[in-house]
Amino acid sequence: MKLSLSMWSMHRTTRENQGTVLDFLTFCRQEGIDRVELLDVFWKDKEAEIPAVLSFLKQNGITLSSYAVGNDFVKGTPGERAEALRVVKDGIETAGRLGASVVRVFSGNMSDAYTFDSALEWIVSGLGEAAVLAEQAGITLCLENHGKLAGKGDQVLEILRRVGSPALKSTFDTGNFLLVDEKPLHALDVLLPHIGHVHIKDFTETPAGRYAALSGKTYEGVFAGEGDVELDIIVSRLKEAGYNGAYVLEYEGIGDEAEGIRKSYQNFNHLVQTKGD
């Protein structure tokens, strides 16, 4: 049970330093990290960068555990929803080129104009079309409980059931459930048979937190294993259920991101060792 690293864990550092995907991969090589998740938002010139990225991955024995896109199907016009589908389609194609079999996807963002119920048909239609393309390409789309519109376990489950495709599963983000006032362990009860990808993330409730929940509570990202998410129980239950997909660190704390990643890796490795794996 090895931890992969999402490039999102370095998003502040990357943006502040105008870094590239290769800069991130170089950091991973230096840290001895051999599994990664890349995101579509970090390409500067994707077509020019991909050959160098593929070469770097091969030369350094780094595996792409997953690829992530930032689609949004909760849009008011057919053209905007078609663009969201194009983003997912591009992600499927890019993942195939890079050797990843999992693409993390979203449903859509909350706004004053739409509710989960009013946007559900758009989400199901868009992900349904995307799932057909993914299945043809041998790719699994994994829907993250991201944002507040469709961030609860039962909402994710309803989307999965409505789409009804083996090519659409859950990206179980261990921390994001807190932002919709749901206990991660409760969401695990709901989604356990449908999980195809896991984001390891931890939050702690604090008045100064940058992340606001639906209830108004505020949370801050912390080192994995040191917050309100019961990661030890979640990992144990996933193991017992036979989950064999990727565990991907998505660190969102303050301070130095490299140190946050190192500490989170230490904590996760200790957790795994104490669980006998």
Structure description:
By secondary structure, the chain is of the alpha/beta class. The protein has 9 helices and 11 strands. The chain has helices spanning 11-16, 21-31, 46-60, 78-98, 116-137, 153-163, 184-191, 231-240, 257-274; strands spanning 3-6, 35-39, 63-68, 102-105, 140-144, 168-173, 195-200, 203-205, 211-212, 218-221, 247-249.
Quick structural summary:
This protein is an alpha/beta fold. The protein has helices at residues 11-16, 21-31, 46-60, 78-98, 116-137, 153-163, 184-191, 231-240, 257-274; strands spanning 3-6, 35-39, 63-68, 102-105, 140-144, 168-173, 195-200, 203-205, 211-212, 218-221, 247-249. It has 9 helices and 11 strands.
* Strand neighbour order, sheet with most strands: 1-2-3-4-5-6-7-11
What would the principal axes of the Cα set say about the shape?
Answer: globular
Structural class: alpha/beta
In total, the number of strands is: 11
Give the helix level as a range of percent.
Answer: 40-55%
List strands and helices in order, with pairings.
Elements: E1 3-6, H1 11-16, H2 21-31, E2 35-39, H3 46-60, E3 63-68, H4 78-98, E4 102-105, H5 116-137, E5 140-144, H6 153-163, E6 168-173, H7 184-191, E7 195-200, E8 203-205, E9 211-212, E10 218-221, H8 231-240, E11 247-249, H9 257-274
Parallel strand pairs: 1-2, 1-11, 2-3, 3-4, 4-5, 5-6, 6-7, 7-11
Antiparallel strand pairs: 8-10, 9-10
Helix pairs in contact: 2-3, 4-5, 5-6, 6-7
